[in-house]
Amino acid sequence: MSENQRDIVFINPGNRKVTYQNLGDELCAIEPPFLTASFASFLRNNNYSVAIIDANAENLTPEETLTRIKEYSPKLCAVIVYGGQPSASTQTMNIAGEICSKIKEHTNYPVTIGGLHPSALPKRTLKEENVDYVIEGEEQESLLELMKYIDNKNKIEDVPGLWYYKNDVIRCNPKNPVIKDLDEALPIAAWDLLPMDKYRAHNWHCFDDIENRSPYAAIYTSLGCPYSCTFCCINAPFGKPGIRYRSPELVVEEIELLVKKYGVKNFKFIDEMFVLKESHYMKITDLLIEKDLDLNIWCYSRIDTVKTKHLARMKKAGFNWFCLGIESANDLVRDGASKRLRFNDIKEIVQSIRDAGIRVLSNFIVGLPDDDIKTMEETFQMAVDLNTEFMNLYSAMAYPGSKLYTEALENNQALPTTWSNYSQHAKDQLPLPTKHIGAMEVLKFRDEKWEEFFKGEQYLSMVKETFGDKALEHINFMTSKKLARNYER
Q: Count of alpha carbons within 13 Å of 76, Cβ hemisphere only?
């Protein structure tokens, strides 16, 4: 093997110009592909040589990505399609497919594709994309056994969760049970193989220091979610709801490495539900307090899992932002999405978080199945009333792997015809219609209300008072960027 040759090259695909339009240059976050880097570390721990090409962070074209791949003459190319949130997997499939096609058209390297979207639609992915293999389910053991097959050490039937052609017939191997030992399966990521100077935090994450969004890291402390929200596809690779944990000690060891070796201060905990199991998240909290690392962390939580007694300690550990999935102000709409929470509970918990000095990012969704203009107005008014430090307003999407996707197929609803339609910021985004209004009404409502919120005097006054003039200037710059949309459909 030559000095540059690798057994396996991992590719993280992305096309920020399509996914985010003009927001991709300065406003959106650029997140390191933690799972891809952890898979690389897992393979390296099993004595395979690896490389990672982060085409998204480096803004590489498919042609440039191919040139980089050729430098390594790999035995296997693994295109791993995940993202910072569930939609980022499906919306990335167009560019992932282009990269796979370039590899197959110009080399003899075998190509496998894995990730959330391929796990949700493995057969369709194999039929539509120019790949040799699709991995359904968790990737680690599948990649390891696939490498053994390529090295003639086992049979292709021994590779769990693999979809492939045999004699021009599609075959699929049974998946393994979900991995129990996450410390072994998700070791400290191969950060040394990533372009660490390219990553930057979300703009709101750094409102207290808006000029220092880099360096940035994002890590998982757990995998999966025990809940079954209809709009979410996070559990597609795992087959069912559930959650498993990395050890707090390993998590904090990884954070300390990132702080000391790469100077990272801004962290995202990617877990769909970080604030859930007290013994897990509070052990991490206490270990971080012991390390005294001066961190700026944000994490996800449900309203009903927040324990006010822990907030002061979490703030001390560096948890400066909670992202709360509120979704809808209307009880019927929210319950229809399996979110059984009440308005007064939400207001009370949000205020307790803010009283502890932790900022709140509130997530709302318009266009859920029971929504009409009146209920969407209620949701927007709730966002205005809460006036949290930042707010996301999403259109409901039927992501592959979600219950909404299954229901849309069953009801013969119009679904996107190209994967880019699933991007919340794409020109051609196509959300779901509701039982009462059309898809374009939902999208227009979302876009108009987003602008109304961020240009509102109440919000801007709060930003100025809380974060100062630089953050206020940044918000004004953000709202000056207009998304092009095609509403005439």
A: 27
| Token pair 């001390």: residue | 316
Residue 109: both structure tokens together: 């390297």
- 275 DSSP 8-state letter: B
- Those residues whose C-beta lies under 8 Å from the C-beta of residue 482, and which sit 6 or more positions away, are 22
Stated as kind and residue range, the H or E segment containing 127 is helix 122-128
- How is 305-354 classified by DSSP, letter by letter? G--GGGHHHHHHHTEEEEEEEEE-SSHHHHHHTT----HHHHHHHHHHHH
pLDDT digit string, tens, across residues 122-141: 999 999 999 999 999 999 99
The answer to whether the beta carbons of residues 187 and 202 sit under 8 Å apart is no
Q: Give the tens place of pLDDT for each residue, 28-68.
A: 899 999 999 999 999 999 999 999 999 999 999 999 999 99
pTM score, two decimals? Answer: 0.94
**Residue keyed to tokens 């980022």:** 88
How many angstroms separate the Cα of 187 from the Cα of each of 36, 125, 142?
A: 11, 28, 16
Rounded-to-integer distance, Cα 389 and Cα 253, Å: 30
Q: Which residues contact 88 (CB under 8 A, 6 or more apart)?
A: 19, 82
pLDDT of 2 over the 90 cut = no
